[in-house]
Design a protein that fits this description.
heterodimer, A: alpha/beta, TIM Barrel, nine-stranded parallel β-sheet, 12 helices, B: alpha/beta, Rossmann fold, 2 domains, six-stranded mixed β-sheet, four-stranded parallel β-sheet, binds pyridoxal-5'-phosphate
Chain lengths: 279, 411
């Protein structure tokens, strides 16, 4: 089963709204990050979005930017991040999507890095600063040849016609719909009009729709149900990991104290369970 | 599909997130229309004269010319433009464009603070709201410009991310724009970033080169042998060079050599340390690590302290049309002093890199060479950097007594 097929199967399994959880690989360090990713898979995520750390993440808000910088400072290199994801692949069947800005890919050579990602058994790529009208890197063809989904990003300002054009040639079973202007982080108020737009997007493109940017809690996931096929949660999970990481640095875990308070993986697991409606 | 007008050789392009696409399409259309509109240029030329004080002088520097081996040396004094640097040429042009597009608000990034200051002044002049993003480190080292921007009514927002210098200020401005594109125009401050900025900024700065050309022909009856300019993102240099690209004129860019050759100690991108990359939404040469993350840079001058370089200059460097050399912090500081003493002109630290390079190279040129140095800005803004180095004790006691005086409530 290649990446595109695995993603397709995960969406088609049932009609329930799915959950895609995002992590910056290597944040706060590679060992903890590995545990965080595993905790996501074990706690109710349907898809994993794993971001390769980069110095200049132009579409991310302060929380994810800081996580990128901490990951880089802790020495997380691109190929080691992909190794971590390859190990995760061995432990879970969930689709794993690599989110990366274009430069970390370019630095290793598009052809080589796409091959590496496919060899690691990962399923797709999300590249926020790779527009459709700068195609000369050949990312689309290379992903296609490797069976990876290159996921189209749709902004609130993207017309439905343009969304259709962007997705018509794409092999990705889904689109990544950004629910509001701006960068990741701040909580999004999901207005009726935004929800309707997601439904229209689904109808117009014929793709599954995963919606993200500012989704932080279960009630928002529930609000998306029926309009989108998947909710994407990023900054809220990074925030949870950060709070526990900082608390863990401050005070050693107390005997009998809740692990969630000082262990980033446990804190993330708790939030994922809540987002997935498991508690 | 390749957009040739977006590219300079293999550099340039427009690698923007989807959310910014409408903003760029609108900007590109508006810029195309403005370029073709003689009324736009007529208004800008009027403001050049009345508001900026153009043409700026092309000053013959006889004493330095003689000292350096009997050359005819001219200094283009962009520092005499309103707000103290060439940055106003671009800021005012884009502010006019913003007003033409019906925008109520402009935002900008700034390193040395000169572009922020220029944008704030242009916004004040044209009645636009203004917010400037500035790295926390740059806010500290270029504080006089922070006050200046606030005097013009601009909001100065500190950027606390990453290196807390120019690179991160660019990111912050771009991100802020994604939240509010409908009533806001982003006035990018150098000849870099996604298309159409490199072309637009170059055209708005080309007035520098046009004036040099006209004046030097009038005075000397011939083309200069060489033109020197400092290169941060590349706007004053491409502006000065653009009128001479097809002439037999040597064009030389001075980059920040900082305090050493190791990563993080300099911002010399054209000396072989940089690699092709796509960052900040354009493709060019960037100082970066093996994973494509931008490296920290250092320069005594905030305006040259940047990991990337405008795509056109990267291309002109690669083809050999522009020669790049790096100049250390110490050489630049020495050039500030020398220029001030010899000619009564206090250059900005950025511009001092171009001067220092000319001072290094002129003695080896044939006598009677005709050389122009673009002095992109004046040095008043650098007082807090130069004073503690040139006259530490006096500056320290001055600051202490000023603090005491203000605390006593004497102002
Ligand atoms: C006086 C002065 N010169 C030069 C520069 C460098 O920019 P550029 O290379 O775009 O001219 C700056 C930037 O802040 C500046 O303030």
């Amino acid at each position: 089963m290649n990446g595109v097929e695995r993603i397709q199967a995960a969406f088609a399994r049932d009609a329930k709204i799915k959950l895609m959880t995002h992590a910056v690989v290597g944040y706060p360090d590679m060992t903890s990050s590995s545990r965080i990713l595993r905790a996501m898979a074990d706690s109710g995520a349907d898809f994993i979005e794993a971001q390769l750390p980069f110095s200049d993440p132009i579409a991310d808000g302060p929380s994810i930017v800081e996580a990128n910088h901490v990951a880089l400072r802790s020495g997380s290199r691109t190929l080691a991040c992909i190794e971590t994801l390859a190990r995760l692949r061995a432990e879970t069947d969930l689709p794993i999507l690599v989110m990366s800005y274009v430069n970390p890919l370019l630095a290793h050579g598009i052809e080589a890095i796409v091959r590496r990602i496919a060899e690691a058994g990962l399923d797709g790529l999300i590249v926020p600063d790779w527009p459709d009208d700068e195609p000369e890197l050949g990312l689309g063809e290379k992903c296609g040849a490797a069976g990876l989904a290159l996921v189209p990003l749709i902004a609130p300002s993207t017309s439905l016609d343009r969304a259709h054009a962007l997705t018509a040639a794409s092999k990705s079973p889904f689109v990544y719909a950004v629910t509001r202007l701006g960068v990741t982080g701040r909580r999004t108020q999901l207005e009726e009009s935004a929800l309707e737009r997601l439904s229209k997007l689904r109808a117009r493109t014929g793709k599954y729709v995963a919606a993200g940017f500012g989704i932080r809690e279960r009630s928002q996931v529930e609000a998306l149900a029926g309009h989108a096929d998947c909710a994407i949660v990023g900054s809220a999970l990074v925030d949870a990991a950060r709070a526990a990481h900082h608390a863990g640095l401050r005070d050693l875990p107390k005997a009998g104290g809740a692990a969630e308070e000082t262990d980033p993986a446990a804190a993330v697991a708790r939030l994922v369970r809540s987002l997935a409606g498991r508690e | 599909m390749r957009h040739d007008e977006r590219y300079y050789g293999r550099f340039g392009g427009r690698y923007i997130p989807e959310v910014l696409r409408p903003a760029f399409e609108e900007l590109e259309e508006a810029w195309k229309a403005a370029r073709e509109d003689s009324d736009f240029w007529k208004e800008l030329e009027g403001l050049h004269r009345d508001f900026i004080g153009r043409p700026t002088p092309l000053y013959p520097a006889p004493r330095l010319g003689k000292e350096l081996g009997g050359h005819r040396l001219y200094l283009k004094l962009e520092g005499l433009a309103n707000t103290g640097a060439h940055k106003i040429n671009n800021a005012l042009g884009q502010a006019l464009l913003a007003r033409r597009m019906g925008k109520k608000r402009v935002i900008a990034e700034t390193g040395a603070g000169q572009h922020g200051l220029a944008t704030a002044a242009a916004a004040a002049k044209l009645g636009l709201e203004c917010e400037v993003f500035m790295g926390e480190i740059d806010m500290a080292r270029q504080h006089p410009n922070v006050f200046g921007m606030r005097m013009f009514g601009a909001k100065v927002s500190p950027v606390l991310e990453g290196t807390r210098t120019l690179t991160d200020a660019v990111n912050a401005a771009m991100k802020s724009w994604t939240e509010r594109v409908s009533d806001t125009h982003y006035i990018l401050g150098s000849a870099l970033g996604p298309h159409p900025y490199p072309a637009m900024v170059r055209e708005l700065q080309s007035v520098i080169g046009k004036e040099i050309r006209k004046e030097i022909l009038a005075r000397e009856g011939r083309m200069p042998d060489a033109i020197y300019a400092c290169v941060g993102g590349g706007s004053n240099s491409i502006g000065a060079f653009s009128a001479f690209l097809d002439e037999q004129v040597e064009l030389i860019g001075a980059e920040a050599g900082g305090r050493g050759h190791k990563p993080g100690e300099h911002a010399a991108r054209m000396g072989g340390a940089a690699n092709v990359g796509i960052a900040q939404s354009y493709k060019s040469l960037f100082l970066q690590d093996a994973d494509g993350s931008l490296l920290p840079t250092h320069s005594v001058s905030a305006g040259l302290d940047y990991a990337g370089i405008g795509p056109e200059l990267a291309h002109l460097g690669e083809t050999g049309r522009v020669r790049f050399e790096s100049v250390s912090d110490e050489e630049a500081l020495a050039a500030v002093k020398r220029t001030a003493r010899a000619e009564g002109i206090l250059p900005a630290l950025e511009s001092a890199h171009a001067l220092a390079l000319a001072y290094r190279e002129l003695p080896a040129m044939p006598p009677d060479s005709l050389v122009v140095v673009n002095v992109s800005g004046r040095g008043d803004k650098d007082l807090f950097i130069t004073a503690p180095r040139f006259d530490r004790e006096d500056w320290l006691s001055f600051l202490k007594s000023e603090v005491a005086r203000i605390e006593r409530g004497e102002v």
